[in-house]
Amino acid sequence: MTDDTGITEAEKVTPSGPPPAPEQLHQLDFLLGRFECVFNNVVVDPPTTVVTYWETRKTLNGHYYEMDITMPTGQFSARWIFGWNDVEAGFLSYYYDDIGSQGTSIAPGWQDGHLVFTGQSNYFGHRITNRDDFVIVDENHVLDTSYVLEDGEWELAGTYDCRRI
Length: 165
Prior knowledge:
Protein name: DUF1579 domain-containing protein
InterPro entries: DUF1579
Structural class: mainly beta
Largest sheet: 10 strands, antiparallel, barrel
CATH topology: Lipocalin
CATH superfamily: Calycin beta-barrel core domain
Helix content: under 10%
Pfam families: DUF1579 (PF07617)
Order of helices and strands: EEEEEEEEEEE
Radius of gyration: 19 Å
Region (Disordered): 1-21
């Protein structure tokens, strides 16, 4: 017997809640919590050093990790979303901020102690190819080295030296 949608009783699925979060996402647990980061921005002249804060939490039943990035001066805030892509068998990220930048990137997974996200971003009206290279120093200390692709070469854009607080 079918209802007015044409679906038989045998074909109906009873919702049982969302599936469990991908196990692979636990590889990003090092980002969870609150960090104070010393950011060295080398793409501006002269280079600057400022303090930023990262606060990362699980969202959507643990299927994604959401990082809020702020500067204590209130000049800047951003959000960086991380997840796992089953189809591509790798990590994904989406970044956006309140100065108009946004971008996406992917990482195949940890290789030789590095988790490297590479992608495309819109940054101050320009399309750039960027890379973020995460290294765990210890459970309370994370480094993120950022690069941009210029004329076929990866150029240092800045470093984040982050400590859990």
